[in-house]
Amino acid sequence: MKTSRRVACAVLLLVLGVSLCAKLVAPAGYARQYREAADAPPSRQHWLGTDEIGRDRFARVLYGTRLSLLLAPAAALLSTLMAAVIGGLAGYLGGIFQRAAMTVTDLFLSLPWLFLLITVRALLPLNVSPLVSVLTTFLILGMLGWTSAARVLCASAASLRNSDFLRQARASGIPGARLFWIHVLPNLKPVLLAQFWISIPIFILSEANLGILGLGVAEPMPSWGSLLKELEGLVSVGEEPWKFVPLVLLVAVVTSFQLIVSKQEEFAV
Amino acid sequence: MTTLTVSRALPNLVLCLCLGLLTPSAFAQGELRFCLRSEPKTFDPLQVQDDASVAIRYLTGGTLVRMNRQSQVLEPELAQAWKVSKDGKQITFKLRSGISFSDGTPFSAEDVAYTVQRLMDPSLHSPTGDAFRSGPGNVQTKILSPTQISITFPAPVAGLDRQFDQVAIMSSKSTKKEMAVLGPFMVADYNPGATVLLKRNPNYWKTDEQGRRLPYLDSIRLDIQPNRDIEMLRFKRNEIDLINSLDSEYFDKLASGSPQLVHDAGPSLDSEQMWFNQVAKAPLPGYKKAWFRSAVFRRAISDAINRGDLAKLVFRGHAQPAVGPFSPANRFWFNAKLKPPVYSPDAALTCLQTEGFRFDNGTLKDRGGNAVVFSIITNSGNKYRERMATMIQQDLQRIGIQVRVVTLDFPSLIERMTQSFDYEAILLGLTNVALDPNEEMNVWLSSSENHQWNPQEKTPETPWEAEIDRLMRLQSASSDPKKRKEAFDRVQEIVVEQAPFIFLVNRNALSASSSSVHGLTPVILAPQTYWNAERLSVGIMEAQSRP
Amino acid sequence: MLGRKIARHSVAIVGTALLGGLLSATMVRLAPGFDTDEAQIDSHLNSGSLRALREARSQQNNILVFYLHSLKRASQGDLGSSLTLHQPVSKLLRERAPLTIQLIGVALVVSWVGAMTMALSAAGLRLETYDAIATVLSGILLCLPAAVLGLLSVLWNTPAALAVAAIVFPRDFRYARNLLGRAYSMPHIITARAKGLHELRILFWHVIPVACPQLLALAGVSVSLAIGAAIPIEALCGLAGIGQLAWQAALARDLPLLVNITVLVTLVTLLANTAADLIGSMVGSEPA
Q1: Residue A143 banded pLDDT, cuts 50, 70, 90
Q2: Residues A133 and A216: beta-carbon distance below 8 Å
Q3: Which value does ipTM take for this structure?
Q4: Which terminal residue of chain C has fewer beta carbons within 10 Å of its beta carbon, N or C?
């Protein structure tokens, strides 16, 4: 496990490091259109070729990584915290709180949130900067992505509610809030870690899908999600394997995250 | 000499005999399969609006006259002959006799009268009917005999006979209503969300030159498939036979492997264009409205866009830089005197400087010192438009203009475009089905709701819009093709000068068809590939290859 | 006691589903583009027809009136008519439900069996390599856009249910793996193992009872995950199910259809989760 964890850390650091040095590694930038060399295969000038309008794919992957690698985990953290508070507290308190919180969760799971997002887009000005747009998108994703985890967490917390050690802790006069933070939350760690890990790729992909509503990363800025969208033209991608690089990179990053957090999980036990 | 002729003729004779033996079995069966890209919203031919319903109407509906999609000439169908009155208000049709609807109900002038009355019923709100509505009043139909009818409109209708290309005749007596048809096929089965199955109409009246009953095909299966990647995948797997309006990247991919499967019929009537918001009450700052209402500004933007690159990169060369409102593919109406657009950022900058703009440190600023920044919205999911917008973004950056590209879902875009007017520029395409400029009256008249850059003007807000109004009305009221052409040529010139629409490219009509489909001659007019559906056949190759 | 509990739950479920319908109607109404129609930019239509088009849409402008009216009709068995497909909503739902039920059912079984098998073996065997392979596999599935999974299912001619299962599987697997991993690392299970208790006995007597309530909650949530996954897959693969219907309705702002689908989805979600809760409270009353 040590080796795999080391490899995972190295992969993450490498990806993050290279993407942060994108300016040095890919000086042309992500937006420049080499129109005379559009849709070119990999070459010495363009390591991963160029896209349909001649932008360097390698530079786009690097800049996209920068953005997605910082924002997706942040949004995942937000959703994990919300799940912990809502699901964990509901399960811990039980009774009417639990029923109310779970009803709200179920409603959240079933409502067509698409329309809320469309409304959010309408409220933002059209000339909003790409950064504000993408920050808003990840914020919304973080705020909507807690539901599934909350239900599992609620079940976990509810089963802890009547456990012996909590009874003893309560009997010894530890206040409820402290009890929740010190004794309940750490026991919910497996679910929280799973939620965090799952959310990262889901949010990265969702960001690209929100592009259809005018949210997410605006042209010409790249994101992993928008690069992965290219895979949807699978019929042609099959003949151009270099288009799979964003996917490989995302899988590598997500797996590395998991390998690191699974170690954390073992420590937590 | 004679011997030589015989020796040459002999193999041909054998071939003909073989083909003759093969042909009946090949023509007697076959199912053509292709995809509709959306759910048909109606089977009622008079209420048709969406592309899927238009396709079904084309394949099932019998019309009095039909525009030959290849020659662009109007040809007789259910009407043997017709005559338009000099004032352009009345048309008299002489109908064929002995024809029946698909359910066996006989066809007569009564059905034409019924169809026209229903079509022009104001409560039906038929888009096809609206095209005939050139003035207030009711339409009058007069049945002169079972095979003769005259139809009188309250006001002259330009290109009156051509408009009947879109009118599928319905039966006045049949209980099956719109399901009783006069076209080569009829709807046999509809599985919402999945397929529409068309079967040959057993009562179809047409025969080919050899006297064989048309259509050759037994059936057409239309699969509802909005995803183009899957459509392509299924074509490659031989699960469908045709792709209409093929994407240019798939065209190239297919062409590299099997060039015989793809067809590029040249520039189509469709155009891609952008326009600025010129609505006075739009929620935009005053200085932006001033830019957008300035013809100099709009022309400069037009000059600064590299249309050649758009055609070359976005459409991989399967498009032509657009010259004006009509594509050169519209042989009669296109104004050949218009000069092709020239890409010149320098000329654009010089032009802008005359209007008080200045290029300052890489940023273009107006008289008031405001940096020129605007957003272009386009509909999401259309990668070509997204790419065009991104290329325009870079083109305009060269003259110091910062453009933000925003993709929106279609209903949101339409709301901004038609109700809230909360937009700066829009990039959209116009699918042109008809050739006649009269069909675009609602786009060019300043009072119209579809006068997109500034709808519903009470009175024309600019002299050039007043001039366009006058010329469009003039061409509409006239039945003299020459006069009409002169008037519309001038409209095209004004539109290019004033650039309310900045026309970008005309896409080529690309299609793909499997080698087992016979009789295909793809054209630029919709429906490109199956315009002669009744003469298409499938499966002859299979018959030949069978041991 | 159980009867009363079920009755109380039923009332809560129906109430929540109706609230879901109202909320979704409000969201659709407030979102821009509600009263627009693609036909509005058809240049053939004259102003009279355009006005008629707008008026047809504006009938639903007052959302409360619309909803109360719909409820009244629904109580008489009429769910209204789709604005875009011009067919009764009840007919559309009835025709399309079997396909979606089958799709989701198969996907749930496949994903759940796959996830549990892999999670149990990963947590139980504690083989690092196996765990890593399982993590990478689920990672790949998690990173593939739903559209790509749908395309792959068409490309490889596999049932679409597998694509839905591929979306649900990694989520189920990760939660289950972590929950079981935690259960396996509890002191009493470690002791049992040290004492040489049979693995199956440990699994069924000690691990499952501990993780049961959470796993049941996960099973309940999986239903909503599968419904969510069925929407893009059905829309992409051209499957005429409720997911495709929901997609079309959302794009066209088809209010009657959307509200009914939301109520239906809320009902299914609530039923699945309530059932999971009820079973969980009966089975897993033993504290961890």
Answers
A1: very high
A2: yes
A3: 0.87
A4: N
